[in-house]
Each structure stands twice: as C-alpha cells, then as structure tokens.
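Handoff note, outgoing to incoming analyst
You'll be picking up this chain. Sequence as last confirmed:
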Amino acid sequence: MPSIPGHPALTEFGTTIFATMTQLALEKDAVNLGQGFPDTDGPPEVLEAAVEAIRSGRNQYPPGPGVPELRTAVAAHQQRFHGLEVDPAREVLVTVGATEAIAAAVLALVRPGDEVVTFEPYYDSYAATIALAGGARRTSLLRFPDFAVDEESLRAAFSDRTRMVLLNTPHNPTGKVFTRTELELVARLAVEHDAWVVADEVYEHLLFDGRRHLPIAALPGMRERTLTISSGGKTFATTGWKVGWLTGPAQAVAAARGVKQYLTFVGSGPFQPAVAVGLGLPDAVFTDLASSMAAKRDRLVAGLRAAGFEVPVPEGGYFVLADAAPLGVRDAEAFCLELPDLVGVVGVPASAFHDDVDAARTLVRFAFCKRDEVLDEACRRLAGLRRA
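Most recent structure output, in case you need it:
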C-alpha cells in the first residue's frame, strides 16, 4: 500500500484543538465551553423557512454563486446595516460557511511566496489556509489583557512581499472589537503595500455595550481592495447549516468563485433561502441577539473571576480569554487537558491560536454562547479550582 504522508503544508497543524477538546468533553461528560456553537436554536422564522424549502423541493444543487434571494438579501443587508452598495449578481458569492469563504479568498489571491499579515491570536484555519496557498504568515500580537494594536509591530509585519491582510473583527478568540483608529491604520498599510484585505466579520451582529460594527470596506479607498466575509451561523445560531458569503469587487469575487467550485462546488441548498429570510428580519432581532449574548458574557466572566481567573471583558463575539496564572497554572495546554478530570469543564488553550506561544502560555478560551443553566453549572464546577 502506498504511504499516506498527508499534505506537507499541513504537517505542523495536525488535528484541530477543537476536535481534541470536544472528544475529551464527551469522554469525561464535561461541560463543553471549548467549541463555539450555541446550544439553542435561532429565530423560528429562519427554521421554518428551511423546513418549507425542503418540503417545496429545493434539495438539489443551488446555483454556483448562491441562490438569487440570498445574494439579494446579502446585498440588502450590507446597505441596511453598513451603507455599502453591493451588486448581488457580480459582487456576492455564497459559500459553505465562512471557513470556505476564507479558503477560497486566500487560495484565489495568494501565490507561493506571498506574505499574509494577520493578528495573533488567530482563528486556526487562517494559518492552515495560508500554508495551503504557499504563502507565509506574518503576525502582529494582540497582547493580553487589552489586545490593543501595536503600530510598530504591525508595520514590521508588512514588507514588499505582502499580498494580503487577514482581519477579524469582532475578534476570535479575544473578543476585541477593532477601533476606527486601528482599522484606519490597517487600511493605510494595506494601501501603502498595495495589499488585499480579507475581513472576517462573522460576529458583526455580536457587539456589546453600545458598540457598532464598522466594516473596513466602508473606510475611504478600501471597498476596491477588500473582500468581506460573514455567515448566518453565528447570527442565527445555525452553525451546522454552513451558509457563508463573501462580498467585494467583482473580479476578486469571480476569482474566489473559480476556486470555490473545486472545493465544494455548491452546498447548503435549502438553508440558503432560509438565511435570506433571516437577513431580512426586523432590527429588534439583531439587537436582542446582542443583548442576550452580552448577558451570557457577564454571567461567565463573573463565574471565571470568582473561580480565580483574571478576565478582561469581551467587547464582542462568543468567547472570553481568561488567564489561569492566578491559579498557579504555568501551562494552559496541560491545564486544559487536565480540566475535565479536575472539575468537569472543557476550555481551549489560547496557544492553539498563536505563533508566539509564550504570549498565551497561561491563557484559556471559554465560549459563553450556551444556555444560562449550562454556564451556571460550568461556573459552579470551576469554583472547585479554588478548593483544589
């Protein structure tokens, strides 16, 4: 039998930390705050629209760019919430989740030897996708606990080989929302180096405490060099449907579509029109979602602090980064592997999202997108760390 070496570009990555920790949660019957998916369903109108689509026979291949009503809904959404004019026919591509959108964009625009600038910690698929494209990642560190952009570090990450900036705001795993000043700095550097920006904005409706999402594409001169990515999974609690999209200049969208057709061709047929319904729901649905998630954030932050962690308050998203050093922890990865046995809770070591692992040596990511009773039980168990 021929050897099965795996793709050489992925040698350093192995199995994702999410799979490892989720398996531990199952084996140990632990409360799983490791993986970022809600444990409740989203708006009933969205769910019913999917059922209706299935029953009405929309179960075959959808059009390659996505069903027309979803592309139209995405364009309307960008105008309604962000003031961005998007042509649904030429400037929208529906993908199998945001992860495929990221892969299609990077593989379409990055050539071997090109450099991609991103912030660390970063969502783990970024590094793997850059490697598959033959690119080199250059990172700028968002340092605990305030995660502010360091201008000197960011400038040093750019070079004459920079092809792309991969930006995520609201940011996973820190919960940071990039300020206008920080986005303007990223934009200036992208223009100076004639680089594309790929903006991962899947948490665009999950900003807290009165914050408003500002897409980098809305800044002067950025629309023509930005591909913006989002999805219905986080907004409508339908992560398993895998309905994402990207928007941007027609030629760049076409290039991403050229790659996407050889990744999945198409997908999520009956779920696409359902997400279109969701994007047209009243403003109150979106504001209520953010308010509900902020309350969950506060619940988990309070519980983690009571258990002895140092915890900055996330500004958006699904996650909180907690420092376990006050509990005597010196290695978060080892701590996370022991945590299910110690108290029956699963988190993810933040080092999985870092090149500079020393910067995250004692940091753990926990998800708060869970039912209140689940969060309360996790906090009750975590309180046992003080007694251990």
